[in-house]
Protein: Xylose isomerase-like TIM barrel domain-containing protein
Amino acid sequence: MTMENPIAIATVSLGQHPSHTLPSKIAAASHNSFSGLEIVYNDLANYAASKQPKITIKAAAEEIAALCTSHKLAVLSLNPFKNFEGHSSPLSERLDSARHWIEIASLLKAQHLQIPSQFDTQNSVGDEHVIIPELQQLANLAAEIAPDLKLAYEAVAWGRYVDTWQDSLRIVELVDRNNFGVCLDSFHVVARLWGDITTESGRKETGEDVDKVLRQSLDEFVATCPLEKVFYVQLSDGERFSPPLNPNHRFYDASFPSALTWSRNSRPFPLETEYGGYMPVIEVAKAWLVQKKWKGYVSLEIFDWRMRDEENGPEENARRGIKSWKRLVAELQKASS
Structure:
């Protein structure tokens, strides 16, 4: 068995210290044989602000697009365009914001704009009679401004209304636009169904067999999800909290769902057990890449608190990423032999 997927990495996964500049991240990804890059909007904004004199974010997008091209890197996505659908703010304002993001994505020559599912618990509704027409307007706007751009809708584990891949697929099918599809993320699937940083075991303690629950979800995906609705997949691990998350933990935030705290701080590369990774990433990757035969982009989207230190820079993180991918491929080959 050979894995032919092109591999991307998110810019946030190459370093989070101010000295970890976007050009240095692009160079590191290129040096370490990545094919694509997910560009986080804040990284682009920081690049624009760092120039002397400062430049507009649109000018920055053009410069970064050229830099990626010179390094033979595709821009897989711009992300994250969040809390759009069903929000209580005026739709016209949200569409104005969307226009800006779509224009930036187009200037970057990005293939996708990533849209996490709504997670504002105070200012949103989940009424599909509201959110479907809004997402259709968003898809129509993208088609008008950037006909080649696709919108990748991602069910986040702490989503207010959409928090499973099945939910996101249902929304995609109701929106019914060729440029609107699913982004799958292993972290969100596992954090929603299997893992829990507030328990001693690191697993959900609901009385159910969480291994079986996850297996059933993966089997359902293999059996029922149309591959043409999947735009790309993201892989990461999750670091086990020992002791479990509690109000005294340095990452604790009472206003955050625990899965959001987990996601923003403690997502190492797949199979990095040396950094506390313990999620069943092999099982997820086997279902998606081997059983379902996904051949498109696999992106490594990592949020690792260690990357906030200056010494943990882009080159080292890019090496970590490729090492992780090779380790995962070897495990998949072993599991499939």
In short: The domain at 7-335 is CATH 3.20.20.150 (TIM Barrel). The mean pLDDT is 97. The first helix runs from residue 22 to 31.
